[in-house]
Design brief:
Blueprint lengths: L2 H13 L3 H13 L7 H13 L3 H12 L5 H5 L4 H7 L10
Helix pairs in contact: 1-2, 2-3, 3-4
């Protein structure tokens, strides 16, 4: 499977609510290795993954909080499907060349 096919598979699974795929997507946004670095999108994906029971995502959220990467504004936003669709979290369009 090519890297693009793997990425599309991860994005598709994340869009279906798969906790592991959400965690992977979060790490892509946080690291900037696959997508342009986006701390807010990473936060949203880690949060959704953590809500699905992914312990690594919960640890990542704690580490982000300890590093002051999570703002009070981010914490106050209700994560909804409308927000997710606006952020285009589950589309690979932002993939780095």
């Amino acid at each position: 499977m090519t890297n693009m096919k793997k990425l599309k598979s991860i994005v598709w699974l994340a869009g279906k609510g798969n906790g592991s795929a959400l965690y992977q997507l979060a790490t892509f946004y946080k690291s900037g290795k696959v997508f342009k670095t986006d701390t807010f999108k990473a936060y949203v994906c880690f949060k959704l993954s953590g809500e699905k029971g992914n312990l690594d995502a919960k640890v990542a959220l704690i580490k982000m909080g300890m590093s002051n990467l999570i703002t009070d504004e981010m914490k106050s936003i209700q994560i909804s499907m409308d927000l997710i669709n606006k952020l285009k979290l589950f589309t690979p369009c932002e993939m780095k060349g």
